[in-house]
Amino acid sequence: MTDTPHDSDVAFIRSLAELLRDNDLTELRVKRDYGEDDALDVHISRVQPQAPAPVAQPAPVQVAAPAAPQAAPAADTAPADPASDPGAVTSPMVGTCYLSPEPDAKPFVSVGDAVTEGQTILIVEAMKTMNHIPAPRSGVVRQILVEDGAPVEYGAPLVILG
């Protein structure tokens, strides 16, 4: 990029910041090419206030039966933050998530389905482009964390594979 700033760059960056705030986004990246050796690459992000984490209550002590303890259901052992789950498939971009290839079509996957590495599990539309999101590894779909047509942010957990 040349050392001469374009007059419109400051206004453009301010409008991006307003867009970020007005649409409650956390991150935005834009690149403007002005010519062969002249470009503006802007990455804006902000930290949103997070709700306080719930206080963990101690588990009740069982005194009665000498039977072997039963394993808790998988949902009870899942991390509080789905993005930290080792089986989480996260969004590679900001966009709109679609669970099926067309509005009235069968979803790509459902909870309990076995998937193979590379299999399309959903679509994230960004800038009118349908981006097929592949399973990063083979496994079973434990949870689908998004609804069809829901907006998603970069890094948002979409699906949990087991």
What does this structure look like?
- This protein is mainly beta.
- It has two domains: 7-45, no CATH class; 83-161, Beta Barrel (OB fold (Dihydrolipoamide Acetyltransferase, E2P)), CATH 2.40.50.
- Helix content is 12%, strand content 32%.
- It is built from two helices and ten strands, in the order H-E-E-H-E-E-E-E-E-E-E-E.
- The chain has helices at residues 7-22, 74-77, and strands at residues 27-35, 38-45, 88-90, 95-98, 114-115, 120-126, 129-134, 139-144, 151-152, 157-161.
- A four-stranded antiparallel sheet has the order 3-10-8-5, with no helix packed on it.
- A hairpin with a 2-residue loop joins strand 1 and strand 2 (38-45).
- It starts with 6 loop residues before the first helix and ends with a strand.
- Mean pLDDT is 76; it is low at 64-76.
